[in-house]
Amino acid sequence: MESDFSSCKKDELWGIIKKFVSLDDKIIDAGCGLGRWVAFLSRKNYKVLGIDNFKQLIERAKRFDRTLELRVADVLKLPFKNEAFDVYLSFGVVEHFEAGPTEALQEARRVLKKGGIIVLETPHDNFLRRTKHFFGFLKRKKKRTSELQFYEYRFKVSELKKFLKNLNFKILAIYPKDLLLDNESIGLWSDFPFLRAKSSDPFKLNIIGILIKKILKPFKFLFSGCVVVIGRKI
C-alpha cells in the first residue's frame, strides 16, 4: 500500500490534477480501490472522499490510514445528493461495465456541481493497438462467443469525447498517458510481447522497446496505454 501511495507523485495524473483541481474543491474518487489517490491527495491537503464497491478494499485502505474518508458505495448509484462535489475522479473504472460507461458518467454528472470537473482515465485504443488487432484478426480463426469473457473496453479519444459531450460536458483537455521512464510502457509492453524485457516486473521494455519508445515519444497518442480526458459540467 505504501509503495502504491508513493507512486502517485511519479504518475502523470498528479500534474494533471494540480492543473485542474484546487485545494478548496470537494473531490470524489469514484472507484478508488485501495485508496492510493485518496491517501496521496489527502496528504497534499486536498479534500477528497473515496468510494469503492468492494468492501475488502475499503477495509484494507482504512487499516493503512484510519484518517482517510472512505465509504463502500456503487459508482452506478452514488449515495450523495445532486451537485455534491466540485471534482469527480475516475481512474480505470468506467471501462469495466459491459453495458458501456454512460450510466456511470450520468451519475458523475448528477453529483457534480455546475461547472464541476471530471478527470476521466481509461485504457486507450491507440493507433498501434488498432493496427495490430486488425492484422491479428485477419490471421486468427474466430472464437466462438461462448469462449470469450468480457473484462474491459479500450476507448478511442473520439469515443470518450462523444460520451462526455452527449452528457453536456465541455472537453477542456485530452492527454495521452503512459509510464514516464524510458524503459517502461503500458501500451508497448501490453500489445507487443517481443518488446518486453526478460524481467518479472511488468511494463519493462527491452533495448528495442526502449529505442522505439524514444522514437515515438513526440507522438505519444500513437502508443499510450491510457488516455485522460478533462471535462466541465455545463
From TrEMBL:
CDD domains found in the cross-reference section: AdoMet_MTases (cd02440)
InterPro entries documented for this protein: Methyltransf_11, SAM-dependent_MTases_sf
One GO molecular-function entry: S-adenosylmethionine-dependent methyltransferase activity
Location of the Methyltransferase type domain: 29-120
Name of the featured protein: Methyltransferase type 11 domain-containing protein
Organism of origin: Candidatus Shapirobacteria bacterium CG10_big_fil_rev_8_21_14_0_10_48_15
Lineage, opening ranks: Bacteria, Candidatus Shapironibacteriota
